[in-house]
Automatic annotation (TrEMBL):
It comes from the Bacteria. Belongs to the RecO family. Residues 1-73 form the DNA replication/recombination mediator RecO N-terminal domain. GO terms for cellular component: bacterial nucleoid. This is DNA repair protein RecO. SUPFAM superfamilies: ArfGap/RecO-like zinc finger, Nucleic acid-binding proteins. One of its GO terms (biological process) is DNA recombination. Involved in DNA repair and RecF pathway recombination. The keyword DNA damage applies. The gene is recO. It holds the Pfam family RecO_N. Keywords: DNA damage, DNA recombination, DNA repair.
Length: 237
């Protein structure tokens, strides 16, 4: 009899594999990111199909196959229906799942990363005031958990404590340079005191607290853009 495993997992991606089958990428706190065969889900009337849709939290039974592991059963515990039905929120969820899938290595398990992604989706599901800020906050926390936390307190070059003004962020170097040291660097983006404070808050506060943060639109847009560029840099490299 084939060996089976039960786990909760988030469906990250699904694509057609054969005429009637699909491959499904899921992330489980027990097994990490794994690619599974979903048999017969392309057939009309498949009962399994609705339970292996991307952006679904599922209770999964994995069957150990001879050549490839496959899904024995899957039951949706949270379909995030309000996200999927809201064109204003869906792109933010899609961006998070895409980044997660690209940066997480196969079978690299981390319950903290799993919980962080679920927290993001739960808050997004409740329609936060600024979904773009929520995504930026999750992205920076995600990168930091992967070991890519930017330096936000001391100059990357001289290591001196940053002064409140005249600082510059480097996407490629992952942190901030003071005014004097910035002259030696290329492709820097100016950051003011409020920008730096917001970045630091992301690393010290929960997503729930950050979703309620108040700031001017200019500061939100600036920090969102910085974090987006930082995330894209690691995705591409």
């Amino acid at each position: 009899m084939a060996e089976t495993f039960n786990t909760k997992a988030l469906v990250l991606n699904r694509y057609i594999y054969r005429e009637y089958d699909s491959r499904v990428t899921v992330y489980s706190p027990l097994f990490g990111k794994i690619d599974l065969l979903a048999r017969g889900v392309q057939r009309p009337g498949s009962k399994l199909a609705a339970h292996v849709e991307p952006l679904s939290l599922v209770d999964l039974m994995i069957v150990k196959g001879k050549n490839t592991d496959y899904i024995g059963s899957s039951i949706v515990s949270d379909a995030y229906a309000s996200i999927k039905c809201d064109l204003a929120k869906l792109p933010f969820a899609g961006s998070a799942l895409f980044a997660f899938n690209r940066l997480i290595k196969p079978e690299e398990k981390d319950a903290v990363l799993f919980d962080l992604l679920l927290d993001f989706l739960d808050i997004l599901d409740q329609k936060p005031e600024r979904a773009d800020w929520l995504l930026a906050s999750w992205s920076l926390k995600f990168l930091s958990a992967l070991g890519y936390q930017p330096e936000l307190y001391n100059c990357l070059h001289c290591q001196k404590r940053l002064e409140p003004d005249n600082n510059f962020f480097s996407i490629m170097r992952g942190g901030i340079f003071c005014s004097d040291c910035s002259r030696r660097e290329l492709n820097l983006e100016a950051v003011d005191q409020n920008n730096i404070k917001m970045l630091r808050l992301v690393l010290s506060h929960s997503l729930t607290d950050l979703a309620n943060l108040r700031a001017d639109n200019k500061s939100f847009d600036r920090v969102n853009n910085l974090v987006k560029n930082l995330l894209n840099f690691y995705i591409k490299n």
